[in-house]
Amino acid sequence: MTALGGGVGGAGRAGVPSGAASSKFGPETDDLAPLGGGVTGRAAGRPVPRPVALVVAKAPVPGFAKTRLAATVGPIAAAELAADSLLDTLAAAADTGWPIVVALTGDLDAAPRAGVLREALAACTVIDQRGRGLGERLASAHADASAVSGRRMTVQIGADTPQVRSGDLVAAYDRLARCDAVVGPAADGGWWLLAVRQSTIASCLASVPMSRSDTGVRTVRALAGGGWRVGATGQLRDVDTAADAEAVTADAPASRFGRRWGGKRAVAP
Hints:
Blueprint lengths: L19 H4 L5 E2 L10 H4 L3 E2 L2 E7 L8 H7 L1 H21 L4 E6 L8 H8 L3 E4 L5 H16 L4 E4 L8 H10 L5 E5 L5 E6 L18 H11 L4 E3 L9 H10 L4 H7 L7
Parallel strand pairs: 3-4, 3-6, 4-5, 7-9
Antiparallel strand pairs: 1-2, 6-8, 7-8
C-alpha cells in the first residue's frame, strides 16, 4: 500500500462546516443494504446497518504525488494522474450509495484540477489525517470516521486503485457478515482495502510496517492476533509505476485514469 500522507502541509476540512457530518449520513440502517451473500435486510426480514466508505488520500500535488510514476512522466503529469485516480475512487464509493468520509492531507489548492476535486469532495465528509506514520494515520482515520458517522461499519480504501468498482466495495462489506475484518490484498504484497465491523479493530494498524512487500501478511497477522475473524476479498493492483498504470488501464480503460494514461503512453517506456 503506497504512502497516503505526509510531505505537504495540513489540508484542513476542505471547507466542511461544523455539523456537516450529520447532514451527510442519513439513517443508520437501510432495508435494502446487502449484508452477507447479497441477502438484503428486507429479504431477511430485518434492517441492516449501512456502512461508511472511508477514503484515505493525499492531495495530488506535483512533486509529492506518485513520485515513482513521476520518474517516467514528470511530476505534473503524475499529479494529474493521481487526481484522476482519486476522482475515480470517489466515484466508485459514491456508486455504493453509502455515505463517504475522506481522510485527507495536503494542500488541495496546489493540486491540478483542484476545482473538480473540491466539487467531488463536497458530497463527502472531509476530515484531517493525524498521526506520525501511515499506520497511525490509517488507525486514526478509522477511529475518526467512526466518530463522525455514528459508529458504523467501515469499508476503507486508498486512492491508488482507480480501477476499483462499487461492486468490489459491496463484496467486501458482504463478507463482514461472517468476519470481523476483511482485507483486500494488493498485487505488490500490501493491501488496498480494509473493512471492519468496528473502528477498534483497525487500531492494530498503528504497529504494522507499511509500504512493504509483506505489509499484507503482517496486517492479517496483527488482526488475527487481536482475536478478530479475518476474511479476504479480491486482489487489486496499486498504481505506483508505469507498468502498474499500463495494467490498470487495461482493466479500466474508460476510467478517468485510464483515459489520461492513454495520452501518456508516448512517453512511457
